[in-house]
Amino acid sequence: MRLHGRRRELVATVFWLLVLTLGALGWWWYTRVHAEPTPAATASPTPPPGAQRVRVSHPLDGDSIVVIATAGPVVDATGEVQLRLLGIDAPELHGADGTPQCWADSAYTRLKQLAPPGRTLWILPDTQRRDPYDRYLVYAWTADGTFVNADLAERGDVRELAIPPNLAHQRELHDAVERARAARHGLWGNCVGT
């Protein structure tokens, strides 16, 4: 009878050790999943040196945005101005026949996700400040540090458009477009003749 009692005691001990271990693992998992982010994780990255802060009004297409600016080092006007993202070229929303080119809607949608109305963008110019259409030529970063021009290139939403002398980020943009093309992302896997 004594052996039977010890066996029950051993089974009960193992059972409770197992319950406590599973409880501790469950608590650890729960605290990891539901933990508050640390201040370092929520801090905004530093904008590029010399960048100007603007507020998004609305994207026009996959590579142009209307923003609200206060005169600064990049945009010398106050109010709504148009920006053209440098180094990239999105398919046209209004092609030669009036209809969107292949992947134009997707490029526009991605730019709306990166730069929705009311959001902050940080912008930098290159050598030329404006194009013949009076748009400011810029590189743009989101408040969380995402390089907008490169994000669009990496996802296959745009083609490369290298126009000298505006080549400050061209190597990075070229490499991003080539990775998207090789992986057949976006327009590279969905549009004939790209």
Approximate strand percentage: 15-25%
Uncertain runs are: 33-43
Order of helices and strands: HHEEEEHEEHEHH
Average pLDDT score: 88
Shape: elongated
Query: What's the tally of helices?
Result: 6
Regarding quaternary structure, how should these chains be classified? single chain
Most strands sheet:
5 strands, mixed, barrel
Widest beta sheet: strand line-up: 1-2-3-6-5
Helix content: 25-40%
Supply Rg: 26 Å
By DSSP, the count of extended strands is 7
- By helix and strand content, what is the structural category? alpha+beta
* Alpha-carbon distance between the two ends: 84 Å
Description:
- By secondary structure, the protein is an alpha+beta fold.
- It has helices spanning 2-33, 39-42, 104-114, 148-154, 170-183, 187-190, and strands spanning 52-59, 64-69, 79-85, 87-89, 120-124, 136-142, 159-161.
- The strands form 2 sheets. A 5-stranded mixed β-barrel has the order 1-2-3-6-5. A two-stranded antiparallel ribbon has the order 4-7.
- Strand 1 (52-59) and strand 2 form a beta hairpin.
- Helix 4 packs parallel to helix 5.
- The termini are far apart.
- Mean pLDDT is 88; it is low at 33-43.
